[in-house]
Structure formats: C-alpha cells, structure tokens
Design goal:
The structure is a homodimer. By secondary structure, chain A is mostly helical. The first copy, chain A, has a domain of about 80 residues: Non-ribosomal Peptide Synthetase Peptidyl Carrier Protein, Chain A (Orthogonal Bundle). Helix content of chain A is about 85%, strand content about 0%. In chain A, α1 packs across α4 and α3 packs antiparallel against α4. Chains A and B meet through α1, α3 and α4 of A and α1, α3 and α4 of B.
Chain lengths: ~130, ~130
C-alpha cells in the first residue's frame, strides 16, 4: 500500500472539492450583489471542468480574472479554517461509522438467534 | 460562510474517497490471492454507489461481510496514516497553486508589455 501516493491523490481530490466550495461561496455572495454575474459563474462552473480545481482556475483566469482571484482567496481561507475541524471529523467519523457497521451486523446476527435459538446455518442437522 | 457546514460536507467527501481507496487496495490484494473475488468486488463497486461510502459499506456487508470488514479495516488504517501528510499537503498545495496562478497571470501581462511596450488594451487608440 503506497500511503504517500494515496495521500497525494487524496490531497488533489480535497483541493478540488475546496475549489468547488469556494465557487459556491462566491456564487452565493454574487447572488446578492450582482445577480447576472452569479448566473454567469454558475453556468461557467456547471460543465464538469470544476472536477479538476487547477484546470478550472486556469480557465476562469482567462475569462474573468477578478472572479478567479476571488475564488482563489476564498479557497485559501477555507483550507485554513476547515483544516482545524477536518481531520478530527474524518478520523472519529470513520471510527464511529465502523463501529456502527459492526454493531448493526452483530445486531442482525443476535436477532436471528433470539428469534430461533437453535438457528445456526452451518451446523443445523435437524 | 458556514465553515462548520463546509467542514462537515468536506469530511463526508473525504471519507467516501478513503472508502474508494480502501476498496482499490483490497481489490489489488485480491488480484494476487483470489482473482475471481477481485473481479466480483470490482463489479460490485463499479456502479457508482461507492460515491456514498457508508451506503456502499452497508450493501457490501449484506453481500460479503468478510470483504466489508476488510475494507472497513483498511479504510481506518488509511485515515490514520494519510492524515499525517494530508493537511500539510493541501495547505501548501493550495498556497503554491495560488502563487502559480498569480505568477502565470502576471507573466502574461508582462510578456504583452515587453512585446509591445505601448500595449494597453483599454487605452489604445491607434
């Protein structure tokens, strides 16, 4: 298992996702301040190219540099702010989800046994 | 800007992505040890339901609990190991990407000016 490769790929996904969240934030602000520009940015961002955050920003810089720098600034801010909560949330989230998956699975087994104490699919002979 | 909401959504995306990476790891291991099971897991995982990591694991638990617990274990391991690198990579990655976007943009402006010192799109009259 190549942990560094996984970390690198994960960082790229995370960066692109924060770009998407930054675009959402900027679009939300524009909806108040400049509705036509909000519509333009929504349209520009809706073609799937936002899947790759850096390529998206390259293109946006060509089309509207002010908006691009605004997205860049919000993204940097989000990365700093979100980081504080993020890792702890993912770690404890995964631990809790895993416990939940195990608990539900064990719960199902136990219910089967309570409903029919002799139930044991592998060993039943009667 | 609701930072906690962004952090929560980001954590969910990240958790699902780590589930996907765990499935990739397990599939890779199975390709050596049990090729038919590797093919089965690839097929099971390829229908897009892996986009939601928890829903995917719920279903996998029903179909093949051993595989599900293996994925769960690998995912927990990845989350612990990747965390160390991840935040620093995302933070410095975004800072570097932003500098690069700014540098390229400024580079273009400067090249235009060097190529034609009188170039100034807004003011040109000749």
């Amino acid at each position: 298992m190549d942990i560094k490769k996984v970390a690198k790929d994960t960082a790229k996904v995370l960066t692109s996702y924060l770009t998407y969240q930054a675009v959402r934030t900027v679009t939300g602000q524009l909806r108040e301040a400049n509705p036509p520009l909000a519509i333009w940015l929504s349209g520009f961002s809706s073609t799937g190219k936002i899947q790759d955050g850096e390529a998206y920003l390259q293109e946006l810089l060509q089309e509207n540099k002010e908006l691009a720098f605004r997205v860049i600034t919000v993204r940097e801010y989000l990365a700093e702010e979100v980081a504080e909560y993020l890792l702890e949330m993912v770690r404890t989230g995964i631990q809790q989800a895993n416990m939940e998956h195990r608990r539900r699975y064990l719960g199902k087994i136990t219910q089967l046994e309570i409903a029919d104490p002799s139930f044991s699919p592998e060993q039943r002979t009667d």
